[in-house]
Amino acid sequence: MDNFVITIARGFGSGGKQAGLALAEKLGIPCYERQIIEMASHYSGINKSLFSQVDEQLRGYNLIKKIMKIPANNDIISPAKKSFVSDENLYKIQAKIIRELAKNQSCVIVGKCANYILRDFDNVASFYIEAPRDACVKSICERMGVTEEEANKMIVQTDKYRSDYYKYLTGGKNWMSPIAYDMTINSARAGRDKCPDIMIDYLRLKFGDDVFEKKGTEANAEALKQLGIIK
Q1: 48 CB-near residues (< 8 Å, 6+ apart)
Q2: Which of 137, 111, 181, 146 is CA-nearest to residue 14?
Q3: Among 45, 76, 96, 156, which is 20 to 30 Å from 89 by CA?
Q4: Rounded distance between C-alpha atoms, residue 1 and residue 20, angstroms
Q5: What is the b/e burial string over 161-200, where b = at least 16 CB atoms within 10 angstroms of the residue's CB?
Q6: What end-to-end distance do the CA atoms of the chain give, in Å?
């Protein structure tokens, strides 16, 4: 195995994104979240604002009526067709970017249904990071300078649209199901600063120590340039 990928799903306020960034820094590999939107825009020629509109959420759909699986062929729709900028096609373009990253580069991917997209890849370890509501509220209040009432509202809204987005694009699967991940971490119990080390310990168990010596970021970046994924 020449490279490995860590996917991180996270409850809002749990510190999952920060854990992903810290993990990537410790391992010396990139961490992708919003950058995938930039890549997808560059790859497809679609304005990144459209990708931002469907970033882990849905635009104006009645979810109960619309839950469905992505078509089995997973082909990206031609730019000549009106549905080129549909939610499903924007998702497929991001999914293609994520798969190409997993094939060519060691990295951390935060959100974007990456654990589902890469569920059949042998070089992937997926984590879900969550924390009790009071810990999430405290973190959001401190980080964003909002009241506890505002923080609670933000948690409900953000986790709901992430959950709805995941269900919609995976055929109704549960975003928080523990069987969708290698490991679920309670960041309040484990300690937020220890989450990266816990994930690294698991990576060693799953992939072995030698995998950390094969990340080859410069070569992998060159491969992505050849694929037209990055400039």
Answers
A1: 37, 38, 40, 41
A2: 137
A3: 156
A4: 22
A5: bbbbbbbbbbeebebeeeebbbebbebbeeebeebbebbe
A6: 26
Contact by Cβ (8 Å): 118, 16: no
Side chain identity at residue 211, one-letter code: V
C-beta separation of 102 from 5 below 8 A: yes
Spacing of C-alpha 88 from chain mean position: 17
To 5 degrees, how large is the angle CA 88–CA 90–CA 92?
70
DSSP state of 186: E
Specify the DSSP class assigned to residue 171.
T
Closest CA to 128 of 174, 89, 84, 193: 174
The mean pLDDT value for 166-195 works out to: 92
Residue 120 corresponds to which tokens in the numbers above? Answer: 């059949």
pTM over 0.90: no
Structure tokens at 146: 């909002």
Q: Alpha-carbon distance 170 to 116, whole Å?
A: 7
Provide the β-strand partners of residue 108: 6, 31
Backbone angles phi and psi of 135, in degrees to 5: -70, -40
DSSP string, 121-161: -TTEEEEEEE--HHHHHHHHHHHH---HHHHHHHHHHHHHH
